[in-house]
Design goal:
It is a single chain. The protein is of the alpha/beta class. The chain has two domains: about 120 residues, no CATH class; about 240 residues, Rossmann fold (3-Layer(aba) Sandwich), CATH 3.40.50.1000. It has 13 helices and 13 strands. Strand 11, helix 9 and strand 12 form a beta-alpha-beta unit. Helix 5 packs parallel to helix 6 and helix 8 packs across helix 9.
Length: about 350
């Protein structure tokens, strides 16, 4: 029986977050169960070990309809659950089972797409465009630490705008690998914007949150080498789209984002404004945790949102042969498949790719 370790608590939701200490083994088990289920279309047994060490037995059945959309059904598979099924009783929490079923359905759809599509494309085709980002807006993934996970910041901001507020909400956005790639890309020798919907989403946020502010918090340097202006332009944005840009003033050792965020709060307060709530979008979980800790110390409500639009970019950077090819022959177009890109991702990135992009057509 395949064993999967999750960060979630069995008394709460079946949150599809891999445990940090066993992410590779858990990812392999999830893929193994999903593939077996899609081939046999019969019940597959598996065991989940939650963050507190509690093991629970489940089973899953994965089926697809005429349009190749996958559906999954998950049930508890303990002895008690088996006895209940003999008497036609339903078992387990409905929300828990729905979350688990969505996990396997998303995995099945993404794995099907990745394995069946052998066409090589120019590497820049694997950046997410406006249509692809919009297609992911209904996929809501919550990490075990309480942070949300979305493809691009605009997806989350648009959801925020559905609930207008007069509170002092501080929307904080990372720059590198959240709004733009972090340096010149290997082949086009230019920066790549990662969220074409962001400019319009920020405008909508300011309309629905009259007392809100939008700032950038970045480790980039505020001189030519940092290319802050160029990075924003790659996403069709300017500095004036934000209330503040908090960045490094000179080269050398970078202060932590925690310290930069504390400095940002101090500067904001000089204008007689302080946040009641902070929403921070960043591609790095450790930076979310840093800002989260500051907010907890200062009794400020916090929402962390992890961004994954740079996954293909990071994966392509890891392909040494592509980097070497681009360095020696810049006129050639680098061709890759999604499968090649997927293999270069870390287990956590692969998990996010399977969860957040099941409906994306590359």
């Amino acid at each position: 029986m395949s064993s999967i370790n999750l960060q979630s608590n069995p008394q709460k939701l079946f949150i599809p977050t891999l445990d940090n200490n066993s992410e590779s083994a858990s990812l392999s088990s999830l893929i193994k169960v999903t593939r077996a289920g899609t081939i046999s279309k019969k019940w597959q047994s598996f065991e989940v070990k939650f963050g507190d060490g509690t093991p629970k037995k489940y089973r899953v059945k994965i089926e697809n309809d005429d349009t190749e959309n996958y559906r999954a059904k998950v049930q508890r598979n303990s002895l008690g659950a088996k006895i209940c099924r003999l008497f036609c009783y339903d078992t387990g929490n409905k929300t828990t089972k729905t979350s688990a079923a969505n996990l396997f359905a998303n995995y099945a759809m993404s794995l099907k797409r990745i394995s069946s599509d052998k066409q090589s494309r120019v590497h820049t085709d694997y950046f997410f465009d406006q249509t692809q980002i919009q297609s992911s807006k209904d996929i809501d993934v919550e990490w075990g630490n309480g942070y949300k996970s979305v493809l691009a910041p605009s997806v989350y901001i648009q959801k925020m705008c559905e609930t207008p507020s007069d509170d002092n909400v501080l929307l904080v956005l990372d720059l590198d690998e959240t709004i733009s790639t972090d340096h010149h890309f290997v082949r086009p020798s230019k920066l790549q914007g990662l969220d074409p919907e962001l400019k319009a989403s920020i405008k909508q946020f300011k309309e629905t949150h009259a007392n809100g502010k939008v700032v950038i918090l970045t480790q980039s340097v505020d001189i030519q080498e940092g290319m802050i202006t160029e990075k924003l332009q790659s996403n069709n944005m300017e500095r004036r789209d934000f209330d503040y840009v908090f960045c490094r003033e000179k080269t050398g050792r970078a202060h932590s984002k925690k310290l930069r965020f504390e400095e940002a709060l101090t500067e904001l307060k000089t204008g007689s404004w302080s946040p009641k709530k902070v929403v921070f979008c960043d591609d790095q979980r450790n930076f979310l945790e840093d800002v989260d800790n500051v907010c907890e110390e200062k009794d400020i409500e916090f929402e962390g949102v992890q961004i994954h639009s740079a996954r293909p970019y990071r994966a392509i950077k890891h392909l040494d042969k592509i980097i070497k090819q681009s360095a020696t022959n810049r006129k050639s177009e680098i061709q890759v498949t999604e499968s090649e890109i997927f293999k270069q991702m870390t287990p956590i990135e692969q998990h996010a790719h399977l969860m957040l992009t099941p409906y994306v057509k590359w």
